[in-house]
Amino acid sequence: MQAMVFDKPGSPLRLVTMAVPEPYPTQVLVKITACGVCRTDLHVIDGELPHPKLPLVPGHEIVGTVVRTGKNVISLKQGDVIGIPWLGYTCGVCRYCLRQQENLCEKALFTGYTMDGGYAEYTVAYEQFCFSLAAQYAGPEGTPLLCAGLIGYRSYVMTGSNVRRLGIYGFGAAAHILIQVARHQGVEVYAFTRDGDKGSQDFALRMGATWAGDASARPPEVLDAAIIFAPAGELVPSALQSVDKGGVVVCGGIHMSDIPSFPYRLLWEERVIRSVANLTRKDGHDFLQLAPAVAIRTETQHFSLSQANEALDALRKGRIKGAAVLVM
Question: Which of 75, 262, 291, 301 has the fewest CB atoms below 10 angstroms from its CB?
Answer without folding.
Answer: 75
